[in-house]
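As agreed, record copied across for absentees:
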Amino acid sequence: MDTAIPGLGLLARTLDAAALRHRVIAQNVANVNTPGYRRREVAFEAELAREVASPGGPPATPKVVVADGPERVDGNTVDIDQEMNALAKNALLYQAAAQIVSSRVATYRSAITGR
């Protein structure tokens, strides 16, 4: 009998990816005025979609990659408006995943305690 909560591993990796993405976005924002800095982003969703489509393969893992984008005169590729938008979107993703995990754990806790 499998005692793991269904989908919890997937949700945990989603939370890990969102936390990593938050750190990467913060690094991009901190380097918005650094000449030659190349914007970074977290690649995760494509691997996650592959994992969901064909379970049994290797688990999806987030990776930090250098992103392409328009370059300013100083060689920097960070657009602060794009970063703030990505930060807000990532915060919503993290909150949603955390709420789902909390709800599932509460359901199991309720079933175990009989309340």
About this structure: Residues 80-113 form the longest helix (34 residues). Residues 26 and 74 are 20 Å apart (CA to CA). The chain has one domain: 8-113. The chain has a mean pLDDT of 90.
